[in-house]
């Protein structure tokens, strides 16, 4: 009898193919990381001002000029950073407004995430509230004569019968 013909992708071939794909993916990832690092280094070389080599030999006026140049560069970079952060905030606001408009047009609204509430906890809380006896604290208070320190004229005025 003839042997049954096996499929093209046998388990061994699948394993080998998977291994080759993983190696290729790892190689591509390393290459992308290297390109990103090279781009980063190139960008930093453009942006960073080089330090003068003979700082020790410079007099105070030349040092002040170098410091002023660095200060101006820092101010320029900070203003650029502020401008970019402002643009990012504006774009985020625009994106938010547009997504709200799209949702309104579709008729689909973002449903807020609700907290799960246990029904048994609510029933237990209701039972404990009903079971707790109400305590009247006023009935246990000591009676105090409020007119104890009143002046004599006030006592006389109190004794006058106003029902007439």
Automatic annotation (TrEMBL):
Record GO biological process: muscle contraction
Taxonomy, superkingdom: Eukaryota
Classification via Pfam families: Troponin
Example of a GO cellular component annotation carried by this entry: troponin complex
Homology family: Belongs to the troponin I family.
Name of the protein described by the UniProt record: Troponin I
